[in-house]
Amino acid sequence: MANSTAKTVVVVGAGMGGLSAAIRLAAAGLSVTLVEAQATPGGKMRAVPSDAGPIDAGPTVLTLRHVFDALFAAAGERLEDHLTLIPQPILARHWWPDGSQLDLFTDPRQSAAAIEAMAGPQSALEFLRFNALSAELYQAFETPVMLADRPRIGGILAKVLRRPALWRTLGPRQTLARQLAQSFTDPRLRQLFGRYATYVGGAPDRSPAVLALIWQAEAQGVWAVQGGMHALAQALSRLADRLGVVQLYGTKVERIVQKAGRVAQVALSDGRALPCDAVVFNGDPAALAQGLLGGDMVRALPRAAVHPRSLSAWVWSFAAHPKGADLIHHNVFFGADPALEFGPIAKGQMPQDATLYVCAQDRALGPAMGLERFEIILNAPAKTTLSPQEVSECRAKTFPPLAKFGLTFTPDPPDTALMTPQGFSTRFPASQGALYGRSPHGALASFQRPPARTRLAGVYLAGGGAHPGAGVPMAALSGKHAAEAILNDLTLA
Ligand SMILES: Cc1cc2nc3c(=O)[nH]c(=O)nc-3n(C[C@H](O)[C@H](O)[C@H](O)COP(=O)(O)OP(=O)(O)OC[C@H]3O[C@@H](n4cnc5c(N)ncnc54)[C@H](O)[C@@H]3O)c2cc1C
Question: How many angstroms separate the alpha carbon of residue 472 from the centre of ligand 1?
Answer without folding.
Answer: 8
